[in-house]
């Protein structure tokens, strides 16, 4: 890990840094977190690092093993199953709450952006991952921004982040045809939202999440 932070760095910055490394597998699942080494690398004391790790432990990304130390949480199919099950229920609730509240201008803007996304001729996996990330943020982010429930939004974002640990592995070898599939699923939801067809939008979102779950789970079986 590079010395990317100064000695006066806040716990929040260390927390964000470590969280990014965990979600992107720069620190592998099951790996012990060497607090002393981190302190030397970041040129800070152990205290803000321990505080940041405590926050990550509360989020289920780090496990504390008595007399052994702190370890990056392992991944499992059971966890993946449970997280998608909860996420589907919560996001369906969020779209029911948001469907009438999203301004038409924002929906049209999203629809236009979706229509301009390239769905082929992307040579690198990084480009494909970036397009998927932009589609997800554009649609799911818009829904969460207008669901009118801050606690619900925070819960969903927590599950999305934890699921990202699994997607980060699955998406390393994204095929071009998957971009088309993802685009079609997202666009279907957008079109129903534009038409203010709330029931169909919810069903399309549920189907998209179910498909995403199946695609991700198949990678680990």
Can you walk through the features of this model?
By secondary structure, the protein is mainly α. It is built from 9 helices and 2 strands, in the order αααββαααααα. It has helices spanning 11-23, 35-42, 46-58, 77-98, 104-116, 125-145, 150-170, 176-194, 198-220; strands at 62-65, 69-72. A two-stranded antiparallel ribbon has the order 1-2. Helix 1 (11-23) packs across helix 3 (46-58), helix 6 (125-145) packs parallel to helix 8 (176-194) and helix 8 runs antiparallel to helix 9.
List keywords for this structure.
221 residues, mainly alpha, 9 helices, 2 strands
Mean pLDDT: 89
Number of strands: 2
- Extract low-pLDDT stretches: none
Question: How many H/I helices?
Answer: 9
Order of helices and strands: HHHEEHHHHHH
- Classification by helices and strands: mainly alpha
Strand order, sheet with most strands: 1-2
Radius of gyration: 19 Å
The amount of beta strand, in percent, is: under 5%
Net shape? globular
Q: State the helical fraction.
A: 55-70%
Spatial separation of the terminal alpha carbons: 31 Å
Oligomer: single chain
Profile the largest sheet: 2 strands, antiparallel
């Amino acid at each position: 890990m590079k010395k990317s932070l100064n000695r006066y760095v806040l716990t929040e910055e260390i927390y964000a840094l470590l969280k990014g490394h965990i979600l992107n597998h720069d620190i592998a699942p099951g790996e012990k977190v060497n607090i002393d080494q981190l302190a030397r690398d970041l040129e800070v004391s152990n205290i803000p690092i321990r505080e940041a790790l405590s926050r990550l432990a509360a989020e289920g990304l780090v496990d504390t093993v008595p007399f052994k130390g702190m370890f990056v949480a392992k991944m499992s199919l059971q966890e993946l199953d449970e997280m998608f099950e909860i996420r589907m229920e919560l996001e369906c609730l969020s779209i029911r709450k948001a469907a009438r509240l999203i301004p038409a201008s924002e929906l049209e803007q999203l629809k236009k952006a979706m229509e301009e996304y390239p769905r082929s001729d992307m040579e690198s996996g990084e480009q494909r991952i970036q397009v998927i990330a932009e589609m997800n943020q554009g649609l799911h982010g818009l829904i969460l921004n207008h669901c009118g429930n801050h606690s619900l939004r925070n819960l969903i974002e927590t599950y999305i982040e934890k699921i990202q640990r699994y997607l980060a592995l699955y998406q390393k070898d994204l095929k071009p045809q998957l971009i088309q599939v993802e685009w079609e699923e997202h666009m279907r939801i957008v079109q129903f939202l534009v038409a203010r067809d709330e029931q169909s939008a919810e069903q399309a979102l549920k189907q998209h999440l179910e498909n995403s779950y199946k695609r991700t789970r198949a990678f680990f079986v």
